[in-house]
């Protein structure tokens, strides 16, 4: 996604900072409709911003006296932060600058901000530059030190345009990506390049060139509530906070859309939206006839929304994802870029997507196993839930004192994996995520884990507040409505397992029978042309780059077991998942070192030259 780029000036740059800054900004400008702010340079720093030209935005930097502010994203509680004066404040960047000056260099005010943003504040009088992330750091900001310069960017690829930067792949990143499927904590693909942590400020002293990082907010700041608890009252309060969160993110004069699935989270967003009728757009992606498409179409009618379907097929799923690897800095296996096939249409349908990201985790407790409900975060139990070696979770110690393991998943799986599935779509439209509303989030995580276990309080909240959308309407996960008895839910899950088992056994004898429960069919699609030949050509090519970091024989063994042996799983290995990780790694290495595949080709895959 677009955002911020910049660097502090060192003598080695030889007064070429304007050209360097322009090249860095060009690396994060992916569409013709992007807008670029001025290329700001002085004797100490060079900063600029690229944005998709949706949100009201004055040219940046905003100047508040001798303090300059660049902001990527938006603030949602402007009225609260400005004591009711938000109408007289020209922009979110202006409000951030005013708050910074009022607090005389203290960053405690950042704790009060409810927003989705990253920012740069240049304090000229103090010769200090501050890089800032919000509480959850979904607006990513990478940074590194190159020679005498501190360099930062909202996308990792922008560092490739900095002349003194030489990318070196971190072997630990290879291990994490291939074994877990995403990178952990603040690791990046490049040695020496870091992701700025959530709730943090990185301060550069421009007179001494020193760097200091401080944390202004941490998960432990949320204190658990003491019982007794009334479930009806809790569900009512959750509903009130959730509706407020949606309203705060859907009250502007824009065209709004929702990525509507057959699940609970996006449906809750739709139900809480103030808009209805044809002005509200919904879109569902999946294979023709799948449960998600069927259920979503039914739900969209309840709001009289204009509903769109993006079909995923063996022919259209792979090609757009090659460019998607570039957009996501290689951090998301291309198997998980669901819906990128319709991204070129998003801009025609809506400006802002109000998204159900993380609702199943935050309210539904989807990562709470029975063992994790009644105990603090445990590295072994979290690794078990992640299906990985506990030794990979090297930064777990500070989580062990927290009252719920969810915070580890939110910091890692949600921030580094699930949200990256939104990152590529932010190249075209704005995404807002109500489940991360500060007041809602704090209330949810002040409650006991038991209430969220198996979506207990979440289902109750949904049925109390939005009965029309949930009573009698199936949940894709189980195939039955959430107001049905638990025995019916268990029966629905059992039926799904039988379908999957039958599908797997029939596939082994050459019969292709697939359930409509799943919205994708990647194993079958990878075995079909054009993907089959493309996977083989890329991964078997003698000039491939990945063998420098990972044994070629393991990749070829998995490829043969999947394509020739017809195996979907063996010894806990999901072959389609692993092959897509291998392919993503190779495509990313080619993009970085050979400048190939940086755009999705307009030709068919059969005409696409392999490595």
UniProtKB/TrEMBL annotation:
What keywords were assigned to this record? ATP-binding, Nucleotide-binding
What's an example Gene Ontology biological process for this entry?
A: asparagine biosynthetic process
Query: EC class of this enzyme?
Result: ligase
EC number(s) per entry = 6.3.5.4
| Reaction it catalyzes | L-aspartate + L-glutamine + ATP + H2O = L-asparagine + L-glutamate + AMP + diphosphate + H(+)
**GO cellular component labels:** cytosol
**Which pathway?**
Amino-acid biosynthesis; L-asparagine biosynthesis; L-asparagine from L-aspartate (L-Gln route): step 1/1
| Domain of life, source organism | Bacteria
Any one Gene Ontology molecular-function term assigned to this protein's record:
ATP binding
Which residues of this UniProt protein bind L-glutamine? 92
- Which positions fall inside the Glutamine amidotransferase type-2 domain? 2-207
Q: Name one Pfam family in it.
A: GATase_7
Q: What is this protein called?
A: asparagine synthase (glutamine-hydrolyzing)
Its taxonomic path starts at: Bacteria, Candidatus Methylomirabilota, Candidatus Methylomirabilia, Candidatus Methylomirabilales, Candidatus Methylomirabilaceae
């Amino acid at each position: 996604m677009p955002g911020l780029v910049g660097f502090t000036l060192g003598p080695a740059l030889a007064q070429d900072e304007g050209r360097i800054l322009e090249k860095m900004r060009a690396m994060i400008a992916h569409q013709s409709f992007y807008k670029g702010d001025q290329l700001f340079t002085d004797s100490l720093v060079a900063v600029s911003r690229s944005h998709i030209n949706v949100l009201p935005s004055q040219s940046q930097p905003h100047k508040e006296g001798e303090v300059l502010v660049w902001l990527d994203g938006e603030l949602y509680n402007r009225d609260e932060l400005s004591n009711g004066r938000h109408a007289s404040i020209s922009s979110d960047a202006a409000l951030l600058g005013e708050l910074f000056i009022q607090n005389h260099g203290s960053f405690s005010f950042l704790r009060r901000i409810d927003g989705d943003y990253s920012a740069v504040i240049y304090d000229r009088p103090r010769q200090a530059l501050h890089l800032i992330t919000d509480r959850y750091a979904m607006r990513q900001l990478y940074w590194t030190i190159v020679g005498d310069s501190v360099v930062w960017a909202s996308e990792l690829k922008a560092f490739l345009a900095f002349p003194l930067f030489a990318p070196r792949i971190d072997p630990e990143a290879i291990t994490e990506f291939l074994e877990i499927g995403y990178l952990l904590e603040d690791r990046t693909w490049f040695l020496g390049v870091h992701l700025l942590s959530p709730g943090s400020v990185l301060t550069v002293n421009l007179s001494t060139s020193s760097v200091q990082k401080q944390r202004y907010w941490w998960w432990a700041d949320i204190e658990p509530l003491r019982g007794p608890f009334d479930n009806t009252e809790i569900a009512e309060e959750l509903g009130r906070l959730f509706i407020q969160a949606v309203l705060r993110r859907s009250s502007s004069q824009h065209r709004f859309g929702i990525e509507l699935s057959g699940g609970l989270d996006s449906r809750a967003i739709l139900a809480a939206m103030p808009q209805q009728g044809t002005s509200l757009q919904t879109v569902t992606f999946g294979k023709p006839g799948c449960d998600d498409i069927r259920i979503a179409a039914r739900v969209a009618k309840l709001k009289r929304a204009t509903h769109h379907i993006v079909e995923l097929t063996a022919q259209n799923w792979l090609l757009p994802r090659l460019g998607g690897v570039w957009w996501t800095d290689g951090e998301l296996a291309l198997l998980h870029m669901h819906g990128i096939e319709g991204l070129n249409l998003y801009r025609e349908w809506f400006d802002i997507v109000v998204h159900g990201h993380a609702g199943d985790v935050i309210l539904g407790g989807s990562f709470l196993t029975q063992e994790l409900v009644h105990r603090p975060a445990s590295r072994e139990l979290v690794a078990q839930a992640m299906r990985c070696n506990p030794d990979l979770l090297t930064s777990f110690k500070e989580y062990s004192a927290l009252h719920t393991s969810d915070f580890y998943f939110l910091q890692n799986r949600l921030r580094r994996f699930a949200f990256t599935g939104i990152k590529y779509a932010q190249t075209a439209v704005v995404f807002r995520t109500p489940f991360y509303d500060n007041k809602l989030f704090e209330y949810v995580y002040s409650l006991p884990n038991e209430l969220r276990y198996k979506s207990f309080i979440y289902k109750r909240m949904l049925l109390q507040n939005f009965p029309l959308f949930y009573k009698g309407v199936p949940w894709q996960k189980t195939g039955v409505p959430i107001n049905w008895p638990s025995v019916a839910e268990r029966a629905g899950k059992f039926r799904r397992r039988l379908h999957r088992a039958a599908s797997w056994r029939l596939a082994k004898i050459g019969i292709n029978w697939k359930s409509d429960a799943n919205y994708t069919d990647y194993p079958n699609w990878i075995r079909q042309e054009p993907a089959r030949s493309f996977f083989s050509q890329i991964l078997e090519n003698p000039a491939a780059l990945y063998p420098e970091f990972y044994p070629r024989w393991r990749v070829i063994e998995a490829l043969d077991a999947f394509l020739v042996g017809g195996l979907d799983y063996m010894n806990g290995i999901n072959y389609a998942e692993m092959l897509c990780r291998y392919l993503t790694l190779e495509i990313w290495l080619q993009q970085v070192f050979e400048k190939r595949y940086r755009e999705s080709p307009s030709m068919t895959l059969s005409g696409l030259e392999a490595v």
